[in-house]
Specification:
Blueprint: E1 2-7, H1 16-27, E2 31-36, H2 42-52, E3 57-62, H3 64-75, E4 90-95, H4 101-105, H5 112-125, E5 129-136, E6 139-141, E7 144-148, H6 149-162, H7 169-181, E8 190-193, E9 200-203, E10 205-209, E11 215-217, E12 220-222, E13 234-239, H8 244-256, E14 265-271, E15 274-286, E16 289-308
Parallel strand pairs: 1-2, 1-3, 3-4
Antiparallel strand pairs: 5-6, 5-16, 7-10, 7-15, 8-9, 8-15, 10-13, 11-12, 13-14, 15-16
Length: 315
């Protein structure tokens, strides 16, 4: 079995010793080529090479951004997708970032050593799971994308990381709270459209999910769309207010793991497409990476488009 191991030496929670141990462990059983990313987009270039050269699997040791890049490299753009997932390398993940949303949504353990043992057991059985992915801007997203306040939080976190700060759960929480209460931060309103219902105007922040949880706060799952998963369509979570009072109650429900409900909230699951339209450019994020500002975003999904190194969903 040929495995490409892609490691991101700049990921929040990776070390040189851990990367070496992972490479040696995998190399004891498979033919492993180790590649270290050196620049933004490099994991995508390596994923494309792995697909072109017929690797059986690509294992990424890094954060969600590196995993997203590798997946986009393996598949190519949504507009040019031509190969069935069974003919492409299966994507595996050994967590190395701060949130590791995608890996944990697949049931991969947070601990790199335990995760490695999980992946090797699955590889030895020759097991693959085909999952659906979302797409926008002719790129795939693995778990969510968003416009408005959550993208502002991602932008501010990236600014902090560029200053040498680690992306910890506590820093995310503080940045989120300060973004809602800071008077100078005012995301523009936009309109959300989904099939079969009138447009939702005045939205201040919205998430489009491909699975749940939306993210994690430490070990706690945050589920904006509890009924959205890798086997169905997209989930939409759109709020028409950034009022602190209103969103404290909503946030408390999310942290408690109860069904998120609020008068200023629209939610739906298993939708075919979602469209965001803003009268002025608004911040956008995808899988936790800041993309910039856009005034229009269209989201779709494809069923069973990517094979991953994970067990089949129970039931």
């Amino acid at each position: 079995m040929r495995v490409m191991l892609i490691t991101n030496p700049f990921a929040t929670f990776t070390t040189a010793e851990g990367r070496d141990a992972l490479a040696n462990t995998l190399d004891s059983r498979y033919h492993v080529d180790v590649e270290h990313t050196t620049h933004r987009g490099h994991a995508g270039e390596l994923g494309a090479r792995a697909a072109a050269e017929g690797y059986d699997a690509v294992v990424v040791h890094g954060g969600d951004g590196s995993v997203n890049e590798a997946a986009n490299g393996i598949l190519g753009s949504p507009d040019s997708l031509s190969r069935p997932p069974s003919s492409l390398p299966a994507l595996g993940v050994v967590p190395g970032g701060s949130a590791n949303v995608f890996a944990r949504a697949l049931g991969i353990d947070r601990d790199p050593l335990t995760a490695t043992a999980q992946l090797m057991a699955i590889l030895d059985r020759g097991e693959r799971r085909s999952i659906s992915l979302g797409h926008t801007l002719n790129r795939w997203f693995l778990f969510n994308a968003g416009m408005g306040m959550d993208a502002i939080v991602v932008r501010r976190m990236e600014e902090l990381r560029h200053k040498g700060k680690k992306a910890t759960a506590g820093r995310y929480f503080r940045t989120t709270v300060s973004s809602f209460v800071k008077p100078s931060i005012t995301p523009p309103t936009f309109t959300v459209e989904v099939p079969g219902r009138p447009a939702i105007d005045g939205v201040r922040f919205g998430f489009v999910s491909n699975t749940g949880p939306w993210t994690y706060f430490g070990t706690r799952e945050i589920r904006t769309n509890p009924h959205t998963d890798f086997d169905h369509g997209l989930g939409i979570f759109a709020a028409t207010s950034v009022s602190v009072a209103r969103n404290v109650v909503l946030g408390a429900r999310l942290l408690a793991g109860t069904e998120p409900r609020a008068h200023h909230l629209y939610r739906d699951d298993d939708v075919e497409w979602v469209r965001f339209t803003s009268p002025e450019p608004a911040d956008v994020q995808m899988d936790g990476d800041y993309l910039g500002v856009y005034d229009k975003m269209e989201f779709g999904y494809r069923r069973a488009v990517l094979d991953v190194v994970a067990t089949q969903k129970a039931g």
